[in-house]
Structures are given as structure tokens and as C-alpha cells.
Amino acid sequence: MDERLDTTNNSKKTFGMSGFLQSLAGYYSQFLETDFKATREPKRKFLQYNKNNRVGIQLASYPAFKQLIIEKLGQQTPASFGVKYGKYTASLSSTIQTGIKSAIKSVSTDDLSEYFVEIEKRCVAASEREPVDFEIFVEQLELDIRNIIDSSVVSRVLKIIEPVLASQTGAAAALEELDTFTDEIVSALIDDHVGTFAEAVGETVYERSTDSLNATLAILSDRERIQTVLSNYFNDFAAKDAFVELRDIISSHTITENSQVYLNVGDVMLGRSKFPLYFIPVTAEVDGDSIRLEFSSSVYAHKKAVDFALSRLKRNHELQGTNPIIERIFHKDEDETYIDVIQKSFQHILAALKVEGDVNLLSSGFTKTKAYGITVTNELTFSLFDKSDESIVNDYEALMVGLEGGNPLLDSFKGIIESFLTENPVSIDLDVDKEWDSTTTPDRLVFQSPLPLAEEQRKVLSAIRNDGSKFIIVEGPPGTGKSHTITAIAFELILRGQNVLVLSDKKEALDVVEGKINDVITKVRGAETEFVNPILRLGKTDSNFSKITKKASIDKLKTSVQTFKANEHNFTNQFDQLEIRLKSRVNDTVTSVTKITFEEIDDFHTAERRLLESFEDLKSIDESDDQQILEISMAHKLFIGNRTKYAKIGKDIDTISEYLRLLTVLREVPQPLFKLANDYPELKLNTSHTIKQYISSVLDLRKPIIGYLFSGRSLMEWSRRIEKITGIFNPKPQNALDELRALSNVSEILSSTIASFGGSPDQDLQTIFDFLKLGAPLGESEANILQRFSEAQWSSKVQALLPVTIKGLLAADDKAVNLLVAFEDLMQRKALLKWKFDQIPNFDYLKDKTQLESMNTLTLVNRIDKRVTDFAINKKADAKTLQQIIRSKAKFPIDKFDVLREAFPCMIAGLRDFAEFIPLERDLFDLVVIDEASQVSIAQALPAILRAKKVLVLGDRRQFGNVKTANASKQINVGYFKEVMDVFMSEVGDDVSQKTRVKNFNITHSVMDFFEYNANFTIQLKKHFRGYPEMISFSSKYVYEDGLQALKIRGKPTSDVLQFVQTPNPDKLELTRNANEAEADIILEQIKAMLEQEAPPSVAIISPHRDQVIYIQKRLSNEPMREELYKRLKLAVFTFDTCQGEERDVIFYSMVGTRQQDNLKYIFPRKLDISEDEIDGSLKFQRLNVGFSRGKEKLVFVLSKPIEEYSGAIKLVLQHYKSVLDNATTMPEAEHTDQSSPMEAKVLEWLKATSFVNIHSCDLEIVPQFELGAYLKALNPTYSHPAYKVDFLVRLQTEGSVQQCIIEYDGFEYHFDNRDRVDAGNWRSYLTEGDVERECVLESFGYKMLRINRFNVGKDPVSTLDKRLNELFSELATKDVGHKAVSAFQAQSSMNINGLKDGTHKKCTKCDNIKTTLMFADSKLKSGYGNHCQTCKRKQANQASHRRQIF
């Protein structure tokens, strides 16, 4: 192919696999240097405009500004400087302006119409032929149209303008370079219609309709339109301001992916093309009414431009030349100026290009030299270019040159390619799943990580640890925590003593990762002292290496390490105890909940149902009366056990009261007296003492030898007297003397016992004796039953149902008895269930887990700090050397890089920057992580892969792919890749399988595509953390097959999440194409109002059209409140193509399309799928996914016509969101509970009655009918939420945050009343291990869970709820409170740092501990203070004394 550059780059040709690798490296190198543009030119070509966006500024128009830049280039360390509005301006005379206008008026489009007829014919002919490669066909048509417009319009106009400009003093540069404006003028005339043209060609070829094609060609050839575009373009020559042009470049920068502003020094012109020779990265930022510029320390040489010029010399003039540029990147030393660096090679370039004369780079005037159609000038320009790939190109050149060197790196290169071509990767998916499945619930919920992690993220870490993994793919749809995962990966490797390099082609993605890492570390640093965290960011303008290694920073880190060391033993013990305790609590919870089975709950409800069926009168009894019925049942069982006794006790209420009053006395009465009272119930206590006298008289009747033989008559007399006292006649009293003696003492014993309890014998003696007749006194439990029964205030319903007296109970019929037996059985079941529920531990999982994470973080921080302080202290010379290398953006020597890698286990760098610093060596990193990998071509990623032992790529192939490859010419790429395939077939072989795999080396494949063939592990992150389910619903449904599990709980109306706003006048004609003033007005009004909020949300504006983005940016730049808008709202304005990786609380969508003009069909697909027969069908579909997944709190759709008037997929998207909004249940008020659920209203009443709710009523929301099941299902798609559960969400608005608690009432009673709701999915334990895990995970996301039911709510549900709500919200308020050991460390570390600084503390050179200076006091020393603390001195003295005793 003509103009093709030598892919071997002068390297020695090799053969076999090495020959293929050389060809492949050359192919990648060519792509990175040229982007495979259709013009086949080097990619860094100077243009002022690209697609109507300013991308270049010529400083020749601003002599004073150019002089300032030259002065800066001549300084060794130029400081940043500002460019103010109005300071540097340029203008053309009115005469010249008139001449230009006349030239434009002379434009004729007659030839265009004729040429376009031929274009139409070619399209019609294509529709009748065999299938064509449509993209190549359209690409060629576009190129032909460019040439036609150039020759018929643009070149003719420029020819007329040339003599007009020649008359303008100072226009020499503009006149000299007039031809170079051709391409961008042609682009200005057609770029806005390229999409329309491609669509129209598609309709002609596939649908055989030429209507759209004719309409589009008519627009392209419209004379009036062409004149307007030309007039707008040349108006830039009339009057301009450097500030305005720089601001326009910055605006273009914000909407252009992977772009960088450069200062170009010198240029080479070949025909109409102008290429910078050197370019310096520039940081350009708007700073109020000025723009601040700062130069990087690197100078890039445009080696490809020189190669291109040399190839022209060879082809056109047969002149040979060698490119004097060896390295593409020059690193300016501190004692050098930029001009010094450039001059080293500039004169050699002039000589190589055969041009004669002097080009003075230090002159503010215009100087040039020219020969053989090549012109070199001293022009200075600013350009917005694609970010530099030079360092990666250098890697490929090194690979090409050294393929036969046999070094380990090249062996690794061959090994990767050969394994890809010939082997199947060993999958570790089963290993990872097996490891996870075998992990116990406590270990799943309690693990050593500074961050909370979902299951998929834990599995990623498992895959990295697995020895069988080399390549890992993590698919991460929008908002699923890719950056969080990367942060966790970095921490995991640091804790394991390994190192990781994090790369991305998106600066924003790296900023997010760096920010997350710093946020986590900073939390345990404490707020009292400011630290520079030792996470090395390479390539960033403000690289943090020098900040980290400053003495003040290292001293702080060193003190932190020493403080931790002093407390490490105690800290480790507390850490272990917390981990063990938390695991134990989780395990106890699992054990407790799994002991409760639905079988026993069902048994309870079955018994309850049968009881109610048998005794319908029970249905009228309130549950609050259950205890009364239970008391009756217990009393009945007691009473019938001794009917006689209880009949006597219960003959009236007074008897019961007296018995209970005297029960304590009865229990002290000697046991024999109970028998006596039972045997002699008529005993007269007032005369019983006289029995003693009768006993004496009876004894007197006994004669020696004969006894009572002849005393019968007398004994009979005494028996009758005794009978009068005892009530029992005994004809032989001599045989019962002991019993009679006992009877004689009864009154005395009872009186004494009564008196001992403070009673009155006179009052209670007979009563006590009467109670003795009833037998042994009641025990404690029996007495309690009797007392409760006798003192109960029976409800009327209970009295109507059951007897409530002892007499009544003893006479109860069988029905009442059966009721009482069944009821007591039911209550026993209930009591057992309540006991089991009460055994479930109540602990603060979220707080304990957060504290464990903070302790893990402190451990991590200490390890990082130790590594970097060791580096700074013990390798000072290396640190100084590396600082100079980083400052000059030079590559690290391999020996020095080993030192750096040990000091900084985590490095972050841009994909296009890292190779500038990091040597091209094998296995430098334990792991290389490539973020947003779907946007990274394999050509860009391969050098990074070579540096890694393992590689993990994260991305989403359903979001945008690689922009570089998307913009490359398919036709050019096909040609180049054919050469690669040819070399493969000739040097390796033509095996069909390998040939198929080789096609994946095409630059059109991302590194994620490439890894599909050799990945050992692949996983998709499914849990969406960014937005509410309604916000991500489009992507989840139409892009991820409902696979996204949105975990963010919406506790506010859907109308606060989705909003549609229509402009007031849908028929208004917008004057600027693809811009909409009315929509901008609405958006700006709303975002300015947000500034009135105390804590305003972050905001982004997204539009399908670049023109609307530029228009809104200009409006914002003129806003007096612009600084506040950008700062407080973190405001950004994006197109759908540039918002990937971004997120904001509120997203405004400015859709632009009106009734008069709507070009959305050229941006979005026709249907809601990826259409193969639609130009850019995949890209258009990806736009929808990316654009509508950026929001966190609210999406606002600003439209200029009704939704039904839109067309294509965008109409369906808008209808989708409108349907979600319309169908959403309005946030229910308290009275809007589900009337079919009796418990919902009851639970709500309980909640409303709590003091917690009443105290916080102004800041509290209660959301009934909350769909908790949807969120638990998100944690596990197989989860089925039982229909019997009643769920509430309680939201408490506190200062700066919203705290949320989910209350779940388990309505078992309704579950088991409706048997058809019971199935295999919910017939199980009350809770499973999986339920415990899900709820703990939900709690770890910040949502407290309160589970209540009829068994654990207690007798007073309101008090129970009030107590638990206060506890739970208190726990939420303190969830971020670190562990006391962490807090103690923070305080001690801060005190030590400040103490060392202020001189109140010293470090002991013996024990290395930092203590107050008082601990070093030593009156024997002149200074009054020693170097050893008193503790060490005492220890040393004790040891010396011990030695003396021994010897």
C-alpha cells in the first residue's frame, strides 16, 4: 500500500515464530503511531478544528504571546503562568475581510451536483451486487466526497483568498500555511452530515430507497449552507483572542476521550499537511478570568512525521535518509531548557530532510527552510491530540529489535503468543466455587479485609491467590464496584507482601481508584495530622513521589510505624478477640435460627386452629386474655388434684385470702400437728392444755404388777372428759398417752409459731388449726397459682367463657375441661417458641465488622508505611535518584526499579504513561490490573502483560469499546493485518485452528476479547451499588437480561428519582444546529437553585450532541456563579460518548431534538438491540447503556417535544422510564397499609405509638409495603421471599446522612392459615444459614434489620419496638466509629508526631519507643536529658544487679 511505512523499523528480519512476532509488533507499532487514518499519514497532524471543535491554535497570530512562550522554553524551570482575556488578540483589516467575503460569495456548487449523481449511481449499483463490506464501501464514498468538495469548492476559494492575504502585513505564516487549512475546511463542510450520509447509504443498499440519500446529498451541495460554513470559518481570521481559543481547546478536551493539550515546537509541512516536530504536554485549566498553563518536563519528538517525510523523499526524489530520532521521548534535566533538549536533534532533522537554511526556534518572527517539497518552520502552536503512545511504541521497537536475543522477556512474549495459539487455558472456576462453597457462614461474613466485599469480589481475590491463575477477567456492568474491587485487590496483595500495578487508559478511572485507596487509609490516620499516603501515582502531572519522600512526610510515617510497634502486641490481641467474638456471634445466630423449624411453628398454628374450630367462643377472646385462660387452666389442673382440699379453701374469697395470709405460718408448723388436726378435727384449743392433767390422772390409776386391771370404770370416766376436749372417745386412754401429750401441746406450739411471725394467737389460733385439717401447706408454685387465680381481675369475655371460682372450676363440664387442656398445650408450645426466638443473639454486626475493617486497614497502613520509611531512610541515595528520574519522566534503571517496587507495593499509572517509567522486563509485578479494559486494544495492553506474573482485566464489553480502533480506517487495517496473516502462514503454518485464533490479534479486539481465549477465571460483578433499581432498570432489562442486582434501597417516591421536564414551546425553532437553548435554560435554572441547598448533590449534564455540550459549557463560562457551580456541584458536561466511568447524584439529560430538527436517529439505534445491518449499531446501543447508567440519586429528562413524537430506540428508552414512573406506587401514607393484611395496620399502630417515632416525627419516614424481597433476591437470585412477611422501611434524616432500618413482621399466623401459600421453597427452617448471611450482607451495606413476630414482640409490643428502634438507630449513628485500639493509635500517633515536632517527646535509642522528655530526665548529664528512657535504664540496672548476684 502506498505511503506504508516499514513495519520492521530497520530491525533485522527474523523467521519462524520470531518472524511472526516481529510482524505483529510492527503492526501494533504502526497502529499506535498512525491510528490507521484513511489518509495514511502520521496521526499528529496540526488542525485548528475537528468536527467543529477547536483543537489547534497558531501562535503566529499572537506575536507577544509567542514571545512569552519562547521565553518559557528558554528557562530551566518555567513556572506556570496565566493567559488573561483580552491580553493577546489579533485581527485582519476590513479590506481583507471584504475580500474574503467576496471569495466566499463566488462559490459555485454546479460541479458538486454532477459528482453527487455519480455517488448515487454507485450506491444503487451496490444494492444490486453481491454483499459488500459495507463499512469499507461507506469509508471510500466519504473519502471521495471529501475529494470532490475539496476540488470543487475549497481549493477554489483558497486560491481566490491567497492574493488577498498576501496584501496583509504580518500574514506571512497564514499565507504560507493556507493550503494546510484545506482538510479542516472540508471537514467543517461535511462532518456534521457523515452520520446522516452513512445511514442514507445503508437505506439505499439494504432497503433500495434513495430518498434519504438524495436529501443528504442535496444538503451537502447546498450553496447557501456552504457559504455559511465558510463564513463562520474565516470569521476566526477577522478577530480573535488567545484566551478564547485556549478556552475552546479546554472545552474540546473535556468532551474528547484520552486527549491531551500539547505545545508544538517547529513543524514540517508536506503539501497540505502540517506536522509538529516536537510536542510538550501542557496542563491547561481555566482559573477565573485567566487560563493557567504549565509545561511537563518531557519533550516528545514526532519520529513518525520525520519517517513520513523521509519516505516522500525516497519515493518522489529517490533520496535516501536516516531518521536521526532514536528515542521518541526526551527527558529534560533540571539544568536544561526545553530549547536545549530540542536543539540536540533539530539540526540533525534538517540535515536528514535535505532542507537548507536556518530555522530559528527562538525567534518570535516566522522563519522557514524548504527543499524537495518539504518545509520546516519555527512555528509554535497548541494542539489537542490523542494522548501520546510513544512509550508503548518504544516497547514494540525494543521487542522487534531483540527477538533473537534469547532474553527472558522475549521468551515470555513468545510463550504468551504460542500458548494463545495452541493451548486451552486451565480453568480454575470450579476451584474458586468449591472454595467458596466450603467457606462457613462465619468465615463468609467475617474476613480480613479493610473493605466490605460481596461474594463475587471475594471470588476474584480467591482466583488471584490460586496458583493456577495467570489471566483473569472481571466483567463489571455500570455501578457494580469495579473500582472498589481494584482497591480490595491492591490491599490484598499489599497485606500478602506482594506488589500490584493498576493501569487504565482513562485518567478518571485511575483518579477514582486512587481516591478510594486514600479514603480508606485516611480513615485510620486520624484527623489531627495530615499525611501523604505512600501510594505511588506515576505519570500524573503532580506526581506524588516527591511529596511522599519529603523529610516531613517520612518523619510522620516513621513516627506512625514506631507508635504502632509500641502497641502492636495489645493491638493484635484485640484484633484476634474481635474477630473470634464476631465469628462466634454469627455462628451462634446460625445455630439459634436453624433450631427453629417451620414444622414446630406449623404444629403450633395447627393446634391453635383446631382449638378455635372446636371452641368457637374462643374467637371472641383477645390475645391479651390468653394469660388469663392459661391461669384458669393451670388452676384447674391444680384444684382437681385435691378437690376436697381446694373446695374447702375456696368456699369463699375470705377463706382463700386467710389461707394465703397464714400460709407462711402453716409452712412452719411441725408436720405431726397436721395429722393431729386431721385426726382430731374437733379439738378444743382453749382447753387442750388441760389434757396434761388428765394424763397424770390416768397414770395414777396404773398399779404395780396389775397395771390398769381394776381401773376400768375410772379410765372410762377420764376418757369421757378427754372426749369433751378432743371430740374423740378412746376407751383406753392409757394406750394413747403420747398422742394425748401432743394434743395438749398443740395450742402452745401453734401460738408460739403464730407469734414468731408477728401474728395474734388469740385471733389466728383456731383458723390455723382449721387449715391444718386440710393437709400439708401449699408449695410456692401452688400458692402462686392460687393467689393469681383468686386475685385476678377477669375480663368479661373470660368470665362468660369459663368459671372463675374454685367451686365453679371443680364443677366444670367436659367441654370446659377439654378447652383448658388444649389451651395449656398451645401456650406451652408458644412459650417454647418464644424461648427459642429469645436465644437468637442480638449484636451489632455492622459496627463490629466496620471496626474489624478499620483494624485491618491499620495493619495494612503500617505495612505500607514500614516499606516506604525503610526506603527513605536506608536508601536515601536511591530515593534522591528516583525523585530526579520521576521529575524528568525518565525510565527507571532496572536495579533502581527493584528498590522502588519494594518501597511502593501499589503503583497507579496511565496505560500510555507507565512504559515511560517502568523497564520492559518480565514478571516485574505480581499482578497487573487493567481497568476499563473493554476500551483498551490488545495493541496497547500487550507490553503491560509482558511485565506481569498475573494479569486481571476489568471492563464491560457492553459499554464502549476502544475509541482508537473504532476511529481507525477499516480499509487500512485490513491491509496491514493481511500482511500479519501472510507472515504467520509463511513462517508458522496454516493450521486452521491457529489461523482462526490469530485473527484475535487484530487491533479491533480489546484486551478483554483477547483474554477470552486464555483466561483461567471469568466472573461478572452483578450487584449494582450506584443507583436505585428504577434508575438502572433500562440497562438491567435490555442490556444485562435483568441480571443486575440493584442493592440501593429507595425510601423516597419514584418521582424524586425520575423526572420529566418539557420545554414550554415545542414548536420553537432553534437557531444553532444540534443545540437547544430552551433545554439549557431549564437545566441551568435548576442547577443554580441547587446551590441554595446546604449539602447540594453532585450534578452532570449529558447530551447526545457535542454542539449542545459546547453551548452549555459556554453558557456556564459566562455565569457569575460558575466557580461555585463547578466546585459545590462537582458539575460536568458530557456527551453520551464521553461519560463512561463518571457518576453523579443527579443527571440531567438534554435530548436537544425538536419538532423542527431531530438528529437522534444518527446517534442512537433504531431498535433496542445491537443491529448488525445498521451502521455503528453496536456503538449506538452502547451509548444507551453508558449514558443512562451514570446516576446515583435522580435522572432528569429535559425534552423539547412529547415522548411519542420521538422515534427509534430513544423513544423506547424514554417510554420505558416514563412507564416506570407512571406505574410506580405513590409513597403510601400511614393509613394506606394493605387492608388484606391485618398485621400491617397493627404493626404500623405499634410504630406510631413508640416514643422514638414521636420524638423524631419531623425527620422520620415510615414506608409500609416495602419490597424487601427484591433486595434479598438481589443478594441471591434463587431467594424466594415468603408472602406472609410484612415489611416496613423506616428512614431517619440526620445531619448529613439518611439512616435506614427495615422492620420485618413474620406473619406466621396468616402463612399457615393459607395452606396454598406453603411450598417446597418456604417449607424449611425459620431462617437458614443463607438467610443469616444475606441479612448480614444487607446490614453491611448500611441497612439495619429488625425482625419481629408474635413470639418475640413481648407482652408490650410498643415498648419492645421502642427499645429496639432506639438501639438500632443508635448503632447506625455510631457504625463508623473505629475500634478503640484504632482510636488509641490515632491519638498516640498524633501526640507523638506533634511532640517530636514541638520537643515535648523523644525517641528512646534503646527501645525505639517515643515518650515524653520527662522520661529521659537525668540530672547526672549536662543537658539534663539522656538518650535512653527511664524504663530502659531501670531494666538495664536490674540486669546488671542480677549479673553481680550471680557472680
> What is the structural class?
alpha/beta
Strand content: 5-15%
Number of helices: 58
What Rg is obtained from the alpha carbons, in whole angstroms?
Answer: 46 Å
Query: What distance lies between the first and last C-alpha atoms, to the nearest angstrom?
Result: 96 Å
Description:
- The chain is α/β, with parallel strands linked by helices.
- Strands 3, 4, 7, 8, 9, 10, 11, 12 and 13 form a nine-stranded antiparallel beta sheet that branches. The chain has a seven-stranded parallel beta sheet with strand order 16-17-15-18-19-14-20, sandwiched between helices.
- α24 packs across α32 (780-791).
- The longest helix has 45 residues, at 551-595.
Topology:
Blueprint: H1 16-34, E1 49-50, E2 53-54, E3 56-58, H2 63-73, E4 81-84, E5 89-91, H3 94-105, H4 110-128, H5 134-166, H6 172-176, H7 182-190, H8 194-207, H9 211-220, H10 223-238, E6 239-241, H11 242-254, E7 259-270, E8 273-287, E9 290-295, E10 298-301, H12 303-317, E11 329-331, H13 338-352, E12 368-371, E13 374-386, H14 390-401, H15 408-422, H16 429-437, H17 441-445, H18 455-465, E14 471-475, H19 482-495, E15 500-504, H20 507-525, E16 536-538, H21 545-549, H22 551-595, H23 598-614, H24 626-639, H25 643-649, H26 653-666, H27 671-679, H28 691-700, H29 712-726, H30 737-756, H31 761-772, H32 780-791, H33 796-801, H34 806-810, H35 814-838, H36 845-874, H37 876-887, H38 894-903, E17 906-910, H39 914-917, E18 927-931, H40 938-946, E19 951-955, H41 963-967, H42 970-987, H43 992-998, H44 1007-1011, E20 1017-1020, E21 1023-1024, H45 1033-1039, E22 1045-1046, E23 1058-1062, H46 1077-1090, E24 1099-1103, H47 1106-1117, H48 1122-1128, E25 1132-1135, E26 1144-1150, H49 1177-1187, E27 1191-1199, H50 1208-1223, H51 1238-1249, H52 1251-1255, E28 1260-1264, ...
Parallel strand pairs: 14-19, 14-20, 15-17, 15-18, 16-17, 18-19, 21-22, 23-27, 24-25, 24-26, 26-27, 30-31
Antiparallel strand pairs: 1-2, 3-13, 4-9, 5-6, 7-8, 7-13, 8-9, 8-10, 10-11, 12-13, 28-29, 29-30, 32-33
Helix pairs in contact: 1-14, 1-42, 3-5, 3-10, 4-5, 4-8, 5-7, 8-9, 16-18, 19-20, 20-36, 22-36, 22-57, 23-35, 24-32, 24-35, 26-31, 26-32, 28-29, 30-31, 36-38
